[in-house]
Amino acid sequence: MSDDEDDIILSELNDEELVLQMHDDLYDGLKEEIAESVNILLARDWTPYEVLTKALVEGMRIVGIDFRDGILFVPEVLLAANAMKQGMGILRPLLTETGAPKVGTMVIGTVKGDIHDIGKNLVGMMMEGAGFDVIDLGINNPVEDYLAAIEEHKPDILGMSALLTTTMPYMKVVIDTMKEMGIRDDHIILVGGAPLNEEFGLAIGADAYCRDAAVAVETAKEWMARKHNQRATA
User: Fold this and answer.
1) What DSSP letter does each residue of 37-93 carry, written as one string?
2) pLDDT tens track for 47-63
3) What pTM does this model have?
4) Do strands 104-110 and 157-161 pair parallel, antiparallel, or not at all (unpaired)?
5) Strands (E), the chain
């Protein structure tokens, strides 16, 4: 860190400068600075939703673009996502109180038999960074876990992850069960994981295969926009 950066006193920056500084601090994964800046903006009568969208979501959007383009890598994105989480910890209760609009809700989990979670965690953090409510079911989820979470949280999106070729087919079990129950079409289903590809995603009946976390966020937003357009024209 340069001497110049050490000399920055966050509270002395005007709103515009502070927001740009927050984008930089998120990019650098600076948790304490993000928490301090969130509190400064709230003290300046910013609404929690404005802080979320203009400072945090916009900052993570920049991170997502550089991750997609190979400028940033997983460890750096995890640091940025952790800094985002620090800010979200302050904002979440306030957002709940104010009933701020959400982009959507996502239930995500690694499928039964699979205990890999780095990719899934990254997707969850990036989705949260894009303004989604994320319910993370963790690893090794049988179909019952997904169904219970769908029943409880009524998500817009179901995300499933697998890193083993042997556990990939379990995604189809979940989707087929949802079809049998007549709830498949109520949800956008996104799948991901190293051994998957687009053809597999289509073959099992998912809406989309997401190559990485940045693609997952873009795809989720596209499908949510489509869903809203369908509702509007219905």
Assistant:
1) HHHHHHHTT--HHHIIIIIIIHHHHHHHHHHHTTSS-HHHHHHHHHHHHHHHHHHHH
2) 998 999 899 989 998 99
3) 0.78
4) parallel
5) 104-110, 132-136, 157-161, 188-192, 208-210
